[in-house]
# Entry
Amino acid sequence: MGLTIDMAKLGNVVDGYSGIRLTDTTMTIQSHLNRQELLRYARAINKVQMLQSLNRKDLEILDKIDALTFKYHGMCLKDSLVTRARLKACKKNRIEFIDRDGLLEHMNFMLPSGENKKKGPILNNALAQFFIEKLGKETPKKFSKIMTKLNNGQELDLADLGFLSEMQLVASQDLNWTIIHEQLIDAINEACNKLGIYFQNLQQVISHR
# Structure
C-alpha cells in the first residue's frame, strides 16, 4: 500500500500572528511594487539562498516590503535566513534594521546563534518549551537536524516531513501560529516530489491506500 499525505491547500496557509493569508500579502506586494522592484526582490531572495551578501538596494526593497505588509496587514513576512542576511548587510553598511513585527525573535528561535551555533537553534524561550512539552524532549534535536539540512541545502526525508507536520499541527491548533516560511515550503516541495507524496500543506491527514 502506498502512503498518501493529504493536506489543506497552501493558499489557505495563514500567518499565525495575524491570521492573514500568505496569498493576500503576496497580492499586496505585487500590486504596490513595479516590475523593477519585483525583480530586485526576487534577486535579493536568490542571493540569500545562494549565501551571497545583500547590498543597499536589496535592503531597501526588503524594508519596503516589510513596511507594505505591516501597513496593510499588520504583519511582516518571516523568513529567518532572510532576516539574518539583512542584519549582516545592515551592520556592514551601517544601516539601521527596522524590526516591525518580531523578526529578530523569530530568527533567534529558528536559527543557531553565537556560541549556540553548534548546538542548533535556540530553544530556551517559552515558545520552544511549549513545543518540547507537546512533542517531547527530542524536539530540539529533530528541529536542529531539519534546520541544518535547510542551511546546507540538503533534502528532507519522510521523518523530517512527519515531524514538521506534528509541529505545525500543534502550532496551528494551540497557538494559531505557523512554522511555515518560504525556504521551508521549497524544501517540502522538493522532498515530496522525490518521495512521490502529495503534501500541499503541513496540516496532516495520513491514509494508507
Q: What stands out?
A: Confidence is low (pLDDT under 50) at residues 1-13, 114-124, 200-209. The beta strands are 3-6, 205-208. The two ends are 5 Å apart (CA to CA).
